[in-house]
């Protein structure tokens, strides 16, 4: 199981498209789901910004990735939520700045800039689930920057003009921060779908400029969907067990009242009687043996 998880994580770091993520989740979801591990697809929208960056305002982005919920020990309430957000964009909306080119600067006067910082983000959140499905979570998140672009756009004489300025080398490769959130997990709908909101606060300066003190921040609205037939089978088995127990309880009540009981109850009762008879015979043999030994003495 551990080898399978490590293999999937390694593959995830090499994937940048949502289509490939969906394909992998369908291939491996059933094998990775168990009583102790839940595997699924998670995505949503996040509203990113950068602190101490002049003219920066919140920029909405979409994100998608995989998640793992590891059950901690034997507690039904504590989980470790982790995974990889493969398509995860940080950044902000900015006003145009000088590109050290008079022609380009003139083109984008009055335009806008979208700072798109592409990370692979890996959260490690301790999650506590209350009995009614509500959960809270908190912990660190680690990010690896693989692409950074300032997208300049403007409209000139009815035509849209765009220029991509590569800023990856002007930013730190790694990011570390704290994340916390609240959410709700359904019991049966879509096999335990969960949704909620989180907030991330970066702790490191994301810029290579020493005193810039620019830190990533982001609000997340997310939806997680368990993948694989394992979840469905578990839900079915649980429902069947509950129905069986309910029927047995009803049969016990009917038996006490002298009413007709189901065939399943009768079979179960016969098995219990046979087991009791076998136990009685074993006890009888033991007692007989002990009596013989006593007489010899």
Which short descriptors sum up this protein?
single chain, 297 residues, alpha+beta, ten-stranded antiparallel sheet, 5 helices
Could you please describe the fold and organization of this structure?
With 297 residues, the protein is an alpha+beta fold. The protein contains five helices and ten strands. Strands 1, 2, 3, 4, 5, 6, 7, 8, 9 and 10 form a ten-stranded antiparallel β-sheet that branches. The two termini are 60 Å apart.
Summarize the helices and strands and which ones pair or pack:
Blueprint: H1 2-12, H2 18-32, E1 37-50, E2 59-71, E3 78-94, H3 102-107, E4 112-123, E5 125-129, E6 134-156, E7 159-166, E8 174-185, E9 194-202, E10 216-226, H4 229-256, H5 263-296
Antiparallel strand pairs: 1-2, 1-10, 2-3, 3-4, 3-5, 4-6, 5-6, 6-7, 6-8, 8-9, 9-10
Structural class: alpha+beta
Question: How many strands appear in the DSSP assignment?
Answer: 10
Strand content: 35-45%
| Count of helix runs | 5
Distance between the termini: 60 Å
What does the radius of gyration come to? 30 Å
* Poorly predicted tracts of residues: 5-19
Offer a concise description of the structure:
By secondary structure, the chain is α+β, with helices and mostly antiparallel strands. It has helices at 2-12, 18-32, 102-107, 229-256, 263-296; strands at residues 37-50, 59-71, 78-94, 112-123, 125-129, 134-156, 159-166, 174-185, 194-202, 216-226.
């Amino acid at each position: 199981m551990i080898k399978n998880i490590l293999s999937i994580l390694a593959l995830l770091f090499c994937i940048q498209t949502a289509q490939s993520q969906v394909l992998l989740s369908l291939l491996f979801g059933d094998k990775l789901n168990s009583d102790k591990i839940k595997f699924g697809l998670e995505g949503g929208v996040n509203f990113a910004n950068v602190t101490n960056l002049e003219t920066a305002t919140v920029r909405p982005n979409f994100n998608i990735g995989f998640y793992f919920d590891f059950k901690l020990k034997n507690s039904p309430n504590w989980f470790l939520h982790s995974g990889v957000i493969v398509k995860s964009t940080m950044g902000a909306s900015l006003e145009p700045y000088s590109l050290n080119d008079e022609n380009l600067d003139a083109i984008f006067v009055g335009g806008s800039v979208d700072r798109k910082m592409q990370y692979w983000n890996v959260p490690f959140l301790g999650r506590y689930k209350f009995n009614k499905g509500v959960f809270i979570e908190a912990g660190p998140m680690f990010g690896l920057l693989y692409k950074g672009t300032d997208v300049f756009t403007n409209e000139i004489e009815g035509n849209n003009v765009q220029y991509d300025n590569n800023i990856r080398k002007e930013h730190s490769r790694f990011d570390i921060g704290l994340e916390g959130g609240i959410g709700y997990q359904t019991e049966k709908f879509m096999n335990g779908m969960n949704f909620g909101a989180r907030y991330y606060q970066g702790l490191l300066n994301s810029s290579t400029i020493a005193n810039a003190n620019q830190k990533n921040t982001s609000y997340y609205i997310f939806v997680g969907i368990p993948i694989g037939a394992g979840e469905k089978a578990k839900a079915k088995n649980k429902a069947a067990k509950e129905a069986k127990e309910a029927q047995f309880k009803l049969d016990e009540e009917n038996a006490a009242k002298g009413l007709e009981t189901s065939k399943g109850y009768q079979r179960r009762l016969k098995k219990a009687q046979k087991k009791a008879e076998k136990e009685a015979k074993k006890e009888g043999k033991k007692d007989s043996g002990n009596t013989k030994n006593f007489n010899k003495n």
